[in-house]
UniProtKB/TrEMBL annotation:
PANTHER family: CELL DIVISION PROTEIN KINASE, CYCLIN-DEPENDENT KINASE 12. It is an enzyme of class 2 (transferase). It comes from Neolecta irregularis (strain DAH-3). Keywords: ATP-binding, Kinase, Nucleotide-binding, Serine/threonine-protein kinase, Transferase. One of its GO terms (molecular function) is ATP binding. One of its GO terms (biological process) is positive regulation of transcription elongation by RNA polymerase II. Belongs to the protein kinase superfamily. CMGC Ser/Thr protein kinase family. CDC2/CDKX subfamily. Residues 1-133, 421-468 are annotated as: Disordered. This is [RNA-polymerase]-subunit kinase.
Amino acid sequence: MAPATRSRFASIAAPASSPPPALPAPTPPAPLPDPHQQQQQQQQPAHNGNPKISFKPFAISVGAGNRKKRPGDGMPEERPQKGPRIYSTPAAPAIIDTSTPTPTPTPTPTPTPTPRVPSPAPHPSPAEKKPPMAYDRIGLVGEGTYGKVYKAQNTRSKEIVALKRIRMEAERDGFPITALREIKLLQSLRHPNVVSLLEIMVEKSNVYMVFDYMDHDLAGVLTHPEFKFTAPNLKHLSRQMLEGLDYLHSRGVLHRDIKGSNILLNNQGVLKLADFGLARFYNTKRSKLDYTNRVITLWYRPPELLLGATMYGPSIDVWSTGCIMIELFTRKPAFPGQDEVHQLELVYELLGTPNPRNWPFVDQLPWYELVKPKIEHPSRFTDTFASQMTPAALDLCQQLLTLDPEQRPSAAQALNHPYFTSEEPAPAAPTNLGLGDWHEYESKQHKRKEREKEKRARKESQIKPVSS
């Protein structure tokens, strides 16, 4: 009879002639640990139905040779020890702690801390210092719906500039489109009679456009009691205005907001066109395109826009320039209307009522029938301004203010008018502008103070002394 196969986990080998020994009885469950023990016993899982084997801190040889069965096989070995009992687990060998417990040290009283005097804060390093401002504001020189304009000085070069802060409070869709259009236009323009954009500055949440500083604007100068322009000065300013306008139109730009406060002057008599918030490019190859008619300040708005036209070209700027020339000579606006209807009435009273004879296709404008005057007015332009202008200047202004936009001259044609080419006197820059900054903002502040002064004087005159 063939010998029986030895079991790997058998404790005693059976004789060849005897049947294979029976497996040992299942190991009884281990006793529950002491509640004061720090580690619980973990039960060893069974392997293929064989008895449970515990791994001891020393190596156990389970080779093919026979060995005697030791007491306690199949369950964790328990040894007497001074410290807590620790049972071995399959994951990590059991470690017997034979060290004596460390006596608890006697707590020593903590001394009362003495109050510490805070040391002064160290000075920040140059890298941690706040960078200086690029510009120091000197004062406010302008304010409007677009924002505010400040006079400022460059902290490094000491150059005087104008900071135009873009108003962002009412914007819900991001950066205002008018400011974007103005920046794009000014980056492409370089002319002595057009204001220069130097740079864009961002300070915290504010965006500033940095321009050349100009000491005055035309609206403020014309209301100043001490500024007087001679005939050569007027010709010099008018020519600069038309030269700047001619440059804009040659570059395909419509200004669409020419007025006194947007025409800047410095103390040397240099004139520059400014404020391109309503300006836009137009196609020079096409005579007219469809645009909005809600442009140009009312007093300088041409009649075709007042009648609802949306297809126009450079002639709208030419009309505004004619209004400015009248204002230069007379020191007051030519058409100070209160609304669109009143503005048209002032135009008709001075230049005559338009009709298809002097303005072809005027009856086809959208609002012509709505505001058609009931009375035909003749032109009174020559009688009104003949005593205040030279003949050539009167003729040029009358051409610039022609009712029919098709009959108005361009800026280039106006520069070739006899007023500039042949009529005396020759143009000359004004020399009496160095009387301090004077813009429309300062002019309004001055008028407000004068009104308050007159109001106080009237109140004092009404107070009668009490008789004793």
